[in-house]
Structures are given as structure tokens and as C-alpha cells.
Design a protein that fits this description.
mainly beta, 200 residues, single chain, 21 strands, 9-stranded antiparallel sheet, flat, 10-stranded antiparallel sheet
């Protein structure tokens, strides 16, 4: 993708973003009319991101990264140092900045950021996430697809491409469908989904 322009219902352009890439396809500049969205990027010999520099006068958005010889991230200027243990999963840090992490025998994270606690089923899919007294739990079908998510008293159910949020809550209930790529219907009202340069 070389750029993304967004227009309102009257045809007026609301935003315009342009991406320039290196010879290997990695984005090295982003240009937009918004100062917080203008960036230059640099990479190391292996294509790993080293710096993200905002050139729109927003230095608080700048980031730098370092990696070790194994390719693992060692630092992120926004969160701190990454620490790895010789006895645990080699890909997974046991501490980032002031946050500690633990893992089960399969390498699944069991405690994470801000004290989150996770449990998993026998197929390594999340069963529950506990954070600040709120438990989010998940139910899966025989084929492994997620059928239901419960967060406190709020329930979301999924049937194929149909997602029902706030299930059983009357007028608050929302039915989401995705008839074609890039289009979402919420209770029959359509909206467009735009991906960024990373596909998010």
C-alpha cells in the first residue's frame, strides 16, 4: 500500500497518508497532514526496527529499540529493558521495565502486564483473563473457533461470521456481520474498515 485517503459522505477529503518504502519493502517514511502521524523509520541489517522518529514536532512519540544476537528485543524506549531467563521460554521475557511475566510449560503467558492472570485449555487457547477484579472468559467449539466471550456481566457470542455483542441485553444488543471484505454491518448499518500499513 502506497497511501490511504479518507473522504466523508460529501466527498471532502478528511485525511491523506502516504508511505515510502525501502528496496526490501519496509516503510521508511510516513507523511500525513497531522503532525503526530509523520514518521521516519530506520532498520538494522536483519530488517528489525531500530528507530521511529516523529518529524512533526512531537518528540514524545519517538521510539528506539535494541535487539540481541538471538533477535530478541532488549529495549524499547517507551517501556524499558527486556530481561530473559535461561530456564524459561527463550522467546519470552520474564520482565519488561517494572512488569513481571510468567509462563506455563507450553510457553503460554500466565501472568502479564498490570497483573493480568491468564488460564488456558488443553489446546493452548485462552480460557480466562483476570484483571482488576474483572474476569473475561472464553468458550470454544469442537473445531476450536470461539463461540462466546463473557466479560463481567457482558456476553458476546459468535456464530460463523455473525457476532452478537451485549447478548440478551435488549436494545443494547448489537448484531455485527461482515458481508464482504472491508465492510461491517452493525444492526444493519454499514461502515467501512480501513487497514493501516501493517494490516491492522
Amino acid at each position: 500500500m502506497a497511501g490511504l485517503s479518507v473522504y466523508d459522505a460529501n466527498g471532502a477529503r478528511r485525511s491523506d497518508t502516504r508511505y515510502n518504502r525501502t528496496s526490501t519493502g519496509r516503510i521508511h517514511t510516513v507523511r500525513t497532514e497531522y503532525s503526530e502521524g509523520r514518521y521516519d523509520y530506520t532498520y538494522d541489517y536483519a530488517g528489525r526496527l531500530l528507530t521511529a522518529t516523529n518529524i512533526g514536532g512531537q518528540p514524545a512519540y519517538n521510539q528506539t529499540f535494541t535487539n540481541d544476537r538471538a533477535g530478541r528485543m532488549r529495549s524499547n524506549s517507551h517501556v524499558g529493558q527486556y530481561y530473559y531467563a535461561w530456564y524459561g521460554p527463550q522467546h519470552a521475557p520474564y520482565r519488561i521495565g517494572l512488569d513481571n511475566f510468567t509462563y506455563d510449560a507450553n510457553g503460554n503467558m500466565t501472568t502479564g502486564l498490570a497483573g493480568k492472570v491468564m488460564t488456558y485449555n488443553g489446546e493452548n487457547r485462552p480460557l480466562s483473563v483476570s484483571h482488576n477484579g474483572v474476569v473475561t472468559s472464553y468458550v470454544y467449539g469442537a473445531d476450536g473457533t470461539r463461540l462466546m466471550k463473557t466479560e463481567g456481566s457482558d456476553v458476546t457470542v459468535t456464530f460463523g461470521s455473525v457476532e452478537i455483542r451485549h447478548y440478551g441485553q435488549g436494545s443494547a444488543e448489537e448484531i455485527l456481520t461482515y458481508p464482504v471484505a472491508g465492510i461491517r454491518l452493525v444492526n444493519g448499518v454499514s461502515s467501512s474498515l480501513h487497514s493501516d500499513q501493517l494490516g491492522s
